[in-house]
């Protein structure tokens, strides 16, 4: 820094001495001590990035904006629109500030000055620019669509009626868009989702899932509407933009945008839905139709990454507080990848464009909701989806002078959300390999029923060293002893009453049955003579105990813990009738699962063939089979995940409900599947197969 | 201490000359108060001239800092009654005022489940006749629709003080049957719950 600074001084001194008439850059006129130099302003959708060269010894900087006409004459008073502080960004060598909160298309000039302590230093030379008009050519069909929020200059939010009309037009005019109704609210409002791909979105949810889609949830709290407006604008950009970046993104994946999961709350401007339920305390429990719709969408479309948009009143926090899924039952890989997205992408890109992404919960921020699995961020993590919370700081505060809930405040929030969601798409595009790897490893880890169970409690988010020196980070929120179960059961067993009994925890005291909710989550269940068994050896192992164990904080029912039946070594053939759970076991011999019996095996080594014919259920997770595997005519669920098989694998004529999972296995031999209904899926976690893949498993 | 008409007029003239700052100019649209500069003006959607022809419900939906009050009014189902009155004055607390008064849970409770309490609360913000800012500054007290008598007086910055805590921050919106004044505190006698619980996430 010192070097660069002295160079500037030297240059201006030289210019002054020679009275050169040639150079007119701002740097050349850094004549006054401590004057900010090299001011640049670049325009993006709804914001302008103001950048400058730092002044030695500056405590902070004030960013001033003045409306000007085409001739450069001020048309309004100058105002300080922001304060840059060192905790805004990870690299203080290149300060940037995203100025937002103006009518897009208006013309302004900007100046920046340093403050040393509280002493104001000289302003930089002004740089004028015309801000970008709302996206889309006003004379091109589709591009010229505008939301109510846009046409009213942000004086009004887009109403439900206007949203539906706008959504229908985007759908009608763009080949890339299919709008699907994923459910209805309590008051019967449609819950729509944009499914956007190029040249057209894949035809079915499973085909969308195959593209490793990403999902943006825009408006769960009805009185936090800023993200939703960004989503509606982004949908138009994705639908009608022909720039290379957009096309590259959409050729590679499918973007899922859910503008309004809480349409009733949005219409009434309430946080909760029309029953008063905070929907972001319901994504695991799915007592409400809105959250149930979301969870069924997740089951069917299987997004690999997500963002969940909110607003947030803490005036001391950054522009864009974010948080990864911290619940300790979330697989480490998902937590790590989510934190990578926030810190190694959002912080880095934020420093370039001037937005202040920061950890949610810093600077006296909220201490709630860190490990509640009822919150979408954690629910998604427990479903092996890389994701983050996004808050838009709704209050003004020290670094964004008080804006109250004005049109300019709304614009700042919405365009900061638009920036974030675009960065999210870029991150996904660049890192989809890493995201899929993390997801695959997480699914295998969970299907292996590994480790203790934590009912509530968070992973620590280490304070990022650069942007927040000396500040308090997000609360630790470690699990208390009563929230830990060191010895995980193998499964939960529910009675008929628990599984199919009427419930009163939904709207109007009517709730979906546990059976229906389990189906919405997509868990596999074995019907046995005296009840229903939910093995943990499946991808959502982290979530299952939180809803079925009596020790959990917010469970549906207190299911009976079913513990492993074999954890040691068994020599010789093993014939299974009834229910068997092998955990960390070794079987030196073949395993034969008799008709109507259930086998669950995790971290188990079986030396010999495994043969299941007409079983009630077969669950293999992170196990090793030294011999062939045959699973045929099962009347219930089949899941083989993260398992190493030395020999051929044959999965045939299984018709027990949902698609068999054949995912992330390593098979030394052929893999053949036939006659299963529905056909098996690999959940987009590819199997490694030495031999040929045949039949229904040809592409798994 | 009552102000004279001449004094008020001189403030208007100052405003026309383009003064700004804490002295709360009267805007070209006829509003007065420090918050007015942040609200739709001129020929923008939601400008005060356009609202002057509108009923209360429609007008409230355009004043950006009144989203909570607007939602509460709709939830209360009081609007048809108010819009049917010959003249009203609406003392409308800003979103910031609501945020400083009620927790989010409390607000949802009022708007969804406890509408009788909500109606009483909102009636504490309505007067049965049309009062300008000047009227408020000149009066000693006003009686709101909940039956309460509230002391009013002139306040610094040519604003009006309403009760002990509230003050106009953008006054003199005209609507079809009266006036709307944006104020910075919630009136009525409900307990403050802001800060209780935590509505993060």
TrEMBL record, chain B:
Name the InterPro entries for this protein: Adhesion/Biosynth-related, FAS1_dom_sf, FAS1_domain
Q: Enumerate the spans annotated as FAS1 domain.
A: 53-187
SUPFAM superfamilies xrefs = FAS1 domain (SSF82153)
The answer to whether keyword Signal applies is yes
Alphabetical UniProt keywords:
Signal
Keyword Protein transport on entry = no
Task: Please list which residues make up the signal peptide.
Answer: 1-24
Name of this protein = FAS1 domain-containing protein
């Amino acid at each position: 820094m010192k070097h660069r600074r002295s160079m500037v001084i030297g240059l201006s001194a030289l210019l002054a001495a020679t009275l050169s008439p040639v150079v007119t850059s701002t740097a050349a006129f850094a004549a006054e001590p401590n004057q900010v130099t090299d001011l640049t302003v670049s325009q993006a959708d709804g914001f302008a990035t103001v950048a400058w060269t730092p002044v030695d010894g500056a405590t902070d900087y004030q960013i001033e904006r003045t409306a000007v006409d085409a001739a450069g004459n001020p048309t309004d008073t100058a105002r300080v629109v922001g304060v840059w502080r060192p905790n805004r960004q990870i690299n203080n060598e290149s300060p940037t500030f995203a100025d937002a909160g103006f009518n897009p298309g208006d013309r302004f000039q900007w100046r920046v000055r340093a403050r040393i302590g509280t002493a104001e230093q000289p302003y930089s030379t002004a740089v004028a620019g015309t801000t970008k008009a709302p996206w889309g050519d006003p004379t091109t069909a589709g591009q010229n669509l505008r939301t109510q929020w846009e046409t009213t200059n942000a004086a009004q939010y887009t109403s439900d009626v206007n949203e539906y009309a706008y959504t229908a037009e985007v759908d009608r005019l763009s080949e890339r868009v299919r709008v699907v109704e994923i459910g209805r609210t309590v008051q019967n409002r449609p819950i729509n989702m944009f499914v956007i791909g190029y040249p057209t979105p894949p035809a079915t949810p499973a085909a969308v899932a195959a593209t490793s889609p990403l999902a943006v949830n825009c408006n769960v709290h009805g009185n936090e509407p800023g993200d939703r407006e960004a989503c509606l604008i982004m949908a138009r950009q994705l639908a009608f933009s022909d720039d290379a970046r957009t096309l590259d993104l959409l050729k590679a994946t499918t973007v899922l945008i859910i503008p309004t999961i809480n349409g009733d709350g949005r219409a009434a401007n309430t946080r909760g839905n029309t029953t008063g339920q905070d929907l972001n305390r319901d994504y695991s429990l799915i007592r409400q139709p809105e959250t149930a719709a979301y969870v069924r969408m997740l089951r069917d479309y299987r997004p690999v990454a997500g963002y969940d948009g909110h607003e947030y009143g803490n005036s001391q926090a950054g522009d864009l507080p974010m948080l990864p899924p911290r619940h300790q039952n979330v697989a480490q890989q998902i937590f790590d990848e989510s934190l990578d997205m926030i810190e190694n992408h959002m912080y880095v890109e934020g420093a370039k464009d001037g937005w202040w992404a920061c950890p949610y919960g810093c600077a006296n921020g909220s201490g709630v909701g860190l490990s509640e699995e009822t919150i979408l961020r954690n629910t998604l993590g427990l479903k092996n989806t890389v994701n983050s919370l996004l808050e838009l700081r709704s209050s003004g505060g020290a670094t964004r002078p008080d804006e109250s809930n004005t049109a300019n405040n709304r614009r700042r929030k919405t365009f900061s959300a638009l920036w974030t969601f675009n960065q999210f798409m870029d991150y996904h595009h660049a890192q989809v390999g890493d995201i899929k790897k993390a997801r695959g490893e997480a699914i295998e880890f969970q299907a292996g029923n590994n480790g203790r169970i934590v009912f509530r409690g968070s992973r620590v988010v280490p304070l990022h060293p650069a942007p927040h020196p000396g500040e308090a980070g997000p609360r630790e929120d470690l699990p208390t002893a009563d929230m830990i179960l060191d010895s995980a059961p193998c499964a939960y067993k529910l009675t008929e009453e628990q599984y199919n009994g009427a419930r009163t925890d939904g709207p109007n005291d009517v709730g979906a049955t546990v059976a229906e909710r389990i189906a919405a989550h997509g868990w596999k269940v074995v019907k046995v003579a005296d009840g229903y068994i939910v093995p943990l050896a499946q991808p959502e192992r982290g979530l299952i105990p939180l809803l079925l164990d009596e020790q959990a904080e917010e469970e549906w029912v207190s299911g009976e813990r079913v513990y492993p039946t074999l954890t040691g070594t068994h020599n010789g053939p093993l014939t299974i009738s009834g229910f068997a759970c092998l955990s960390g076991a070794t079987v030196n011999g073949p395993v034969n699962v008799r008709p109507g019996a259930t086998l669950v095996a995790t971290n188990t080594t079986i030396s010999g063939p495994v043969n299941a014919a007409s079983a009630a259920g077969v669950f293999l997770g992170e196990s090793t089979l030294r011999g062939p595997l045959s699973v045929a005519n099962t009347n219930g669920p089949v899941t083989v995940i993260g398992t190493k098989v030395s020999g051929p694998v044959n999965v045939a004529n299984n018709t027990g409900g949902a698609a068999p999972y054949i995912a992330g296995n390593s098979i030394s031999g052929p893999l053949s599947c036939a006659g299963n209904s529905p056909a098996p899926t690999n959940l987009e976690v590819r199997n490694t197969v030495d031999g040929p893949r045949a039949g229904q498993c040809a592409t798994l | 201490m009552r102000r004279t008409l001449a004094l008020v007029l001189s403030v208007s003239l100052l405003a026309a000359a383009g003064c700004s700052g804490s002295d709360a100019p009267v805007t070209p649209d006829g509003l007065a108060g420090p918050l007015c500069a942040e609200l739709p003006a001129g020929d923008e959607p939601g400008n005060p001239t356009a609202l002057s022809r509108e009923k209360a419900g429609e007008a409230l939906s355009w004043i950006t800092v009144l989203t909570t009050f607007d939602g509460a009014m709709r939830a209360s189902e009081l609007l048809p009654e108010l819009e049917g009155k010959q003249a009203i004055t609406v003392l409308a607390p800003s979103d910031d005022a609501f945020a400083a008064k009620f927790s989010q849970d409390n607000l949802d409770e009022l708007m969804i489940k406890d509408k009788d309490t909500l109606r009483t609360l909102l009636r504490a913000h309505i007067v049965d006749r049309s009062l300008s800012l000047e009227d408020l500054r000149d009066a000693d007290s006003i009686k709101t629709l909940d039956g309460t008598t509230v002391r009013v007086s002139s306040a610094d910055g040519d604003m009006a003080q309403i009760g002990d805590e509230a003050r106009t921050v953008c006054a003199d919106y005209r609507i079809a049957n009266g006036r709307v004044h944006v104020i910075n505190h919630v009136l009525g006698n409900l307990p403050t719950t802001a800060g209780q619980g935590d509505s993060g996430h």
